[in-house]
Amino acid sequence: MKELFWNSDEIHSAADQICQSIPGYQESAQRYEETAAQVQNILGYELYDQLCTRLAECSAYEIRAYYSLGLGLREELMHSLSF
Fold it and tell me: Whole-angstrom Cα distance, residue 14 to residue 35?
């Protein structure tokens, strides 16, 4: 089931399109890329790559937690609306 969402080019493309349409996203992404390049220059590629990997791991858990809350809220809403 997770492969349906996490490894789907369609999902990634759709999410990217949504991000691109959110006001301020492109500027934020640009500032991130600039700062990331500075940090990589200071830390070196290997340590920077480890940092990014660990951050992505932690972020994935946090995203799952928030997503689970959203699913739970939708489930509660569906139950409250059913007769």
Answer: 26
pLDDT in tens, 8-26: 788 889 989 999 999 999 9
- pTM beyond cutoff 0.85: no
Q: Are 1 and 8 in contact (CB under 8 A)?
A: no
Question: What is the DSSP code (8-state) at residue 23?
Answer: T
Cα dihedral 68, 55, 31, 9 in deg (nearest 10): -60
- Cβ-proximal residues to 26 (8 Å cutoff; 6+ apart), any chain: 20
The DSSP element (H or E) to which 46 belongs, if any, is helix 45-81
- The position carrying tokens 């220059």 is 41
What distance in Å separates the CA atoms of residue 47 and residue 36, rounded to the nearest whole number? Answer: 12
